[in-house]
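Let us practice reading a record.
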Amino acid sequence: MDTNIICLKCNYHKAIKELHHVSGELFINCPRCGYWRQYLDKKGSSPNVKDTNSFIKETEDYYIVGGGGKGAFRIESGKDMIQIGSLDKNNRDAFEYKVREMLQFKKVNKVFYTEKQLGVWFEFDVINNTKREIKDDE
């Protein structure tokens, strides 16, 4: 996993790039805005996108699938268990349901989501009911 990648959507300098060696798929995900991009090798994969906010582009060798950019979530339920993803007003209900389910059946240490308000990115801590500004240089 490689960090310090610049997000193509919000220019945050802490996006994550991860290469899955078995499938050859490359994923880029921004923990601030939730923008994600996946590169699928045409030889082994075909895109399966159900989210209407996503896009599919095609190059000679790859399908490029992506979406998000309006917010993200992070759920930490143990030392090694972290779930991340895109979050916006269209899937907020699904996120809240997932959090309630995890709180009921698992020990959840931290739950965060991000949202842009008046041009400033904030991180909201769901368990402690706090919020803080996310600065570009952190």
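A brief commentary: The chain has a mean pLDDT of 77.
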